[in-house]
């Protein structure tokens, strides 16, 4: 049985001090979501503060991005080695905002996934279609392409360690969300695609999240879907009470 995983993507919100305040309020409530793996994904400047706050807890730390080189003349970038030293276990790769605003390609995503795994970081790989692609009936084509590109050339045991987040671009930060049934259908497609490439064992081990305007009011709709193992939460994760309420919906 796969352990549900719910991650808080804070995007470009929260200073180190604000992140510490979140943790002080959030951690006493963690027991409300027993059996669910929780991950906080603060901005780079708050990683070390959050790592200190989480020490001794059962909450994991992750980053929102990385660069694929270990070190070098790459102004403004953060390496996987740096993230490991900061206490990270997870890293988000290929978020639609990175693809859309910063020009990340499928090839970039692939290189980042390989670099993360090579440094003992667990990737949360984001895939999803735009509104235009959805309306053109290309959702499955786009998602399959992104999945294949992200994991190309990796071994089955490496893929099995990863998390994949289905995040329809049209639902991120818009207040709109896919229905539970729609999200479950695409997550099933992702799992079948992985099974065809890496075998049933690896595919069944991969945890699949839904992301896109997830909030306490709709979390249960996604939690009851058989192919969905958790959520990648944006805006609602900025408030401790809302984030833990979403996580509660995924308690086995």
Would you kindly provide a written description of the structure presented here, covering whatever features stand out?
The structure is a single chain. The chain is globular. The chain has twelve helices and eight strands. Helix 1 (16-26) packs parallel to helix 2 and helix 7 (139-151) packs across helix 9. The protein has a single domain, classed as TIM Barrel, CATH 3.20.20. The model has no long low-confidence stretch (mean pLDDT 96). An eight-stranded parallel β-barrel has the order 1-2-3-4-5-6-7-8, surrounded by five helices. It is of the alpha/beta class and 252 residues long.
Notable characteristics:
single chain, 252 residues, alpha/beta, eight-stranded parallel beta barrel, 12 helices, globular
For the secondary structure, the number of strands is: 8
- Principal-axes geometry comes out as globular
Alpha-carbon distance between the two ends: 10 Å
Major beta-sheet overview: 8 strands, parallel, barrel
Binned strand content:
15-25%
Task: Count the DSSP helices.
Answer: 12
Total tally of structural domains: 1
Q: What is the gyration radius calculated from CA atoms?
A: 17 Å
CATH superfamily: Aldolase class I
Please mark out the parts with pLDDT under 50 across 5 or more consecutive residues, or reply none: none
Mean pLDDT score: 96
In sequence order, what are the helices and strands, one letter per element? EHEHEHEHHEHHHEHHEHEH
CATH architecture: Alpha-Beta Barrel
CATH topology: TIM Barrel
Helix content: 40-55%
Structural class: alpha/beta
CATH class: Alpha Beta
| Strand line-up of the largest beta sheet | 1-2-3-4-5-6-7-8
């Amino acid at each position: 049985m796969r352990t549900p995983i719910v991650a808080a993507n804070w995007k470009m919100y929260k200073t180190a001090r604000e992140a510490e305040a979140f943790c002080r309020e959030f951690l006493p409530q963690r027991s409300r979501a027993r059996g669910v793996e929780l991950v906080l994904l603060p901005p780079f400047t708050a990683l070390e503060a959050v790592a200190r706050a989480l020490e001794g807890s059962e909450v994991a730390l992750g980053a929102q991005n990385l660069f694929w080189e270990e070190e070098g003349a790459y102004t403004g970038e953060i390496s996987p080695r740096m993230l490991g030293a900061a206490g990270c276990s997870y890293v988000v790769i290929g978020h639609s905002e990175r693809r859309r605003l910063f020009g990340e390609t499928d090839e970039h995503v692939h290189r980042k996934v390989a670099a993360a795994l090579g440094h003992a970081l667990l990737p949360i790989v984001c895939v999803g279609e735009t509104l235009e692609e959805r309306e053109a009936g290309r959702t499955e084509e786009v998602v399959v392409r992104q999945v294949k590109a992200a994991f190309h050339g990796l071994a089955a045991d490496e893929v099995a360690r990863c998390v994949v987040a289905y995040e329809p671009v049209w639902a991120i930060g818009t207040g709109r969300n896919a229905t539970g049934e729609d999200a479950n259908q695409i997550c099933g497609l992702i799992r079948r695609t992985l099974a065809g490439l890496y075998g049933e064992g690896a595919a069944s081990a991969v945890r699949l999240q839904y992301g896109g305007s997830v909030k306490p009011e709709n979390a249960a709709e996604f939690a009851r879907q058989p192919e969905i193992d958790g959520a990648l939460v944006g805006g609602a994760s900025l408030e401790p009470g809302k984030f833990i309420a979403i996580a509660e919906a995924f308690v086995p």
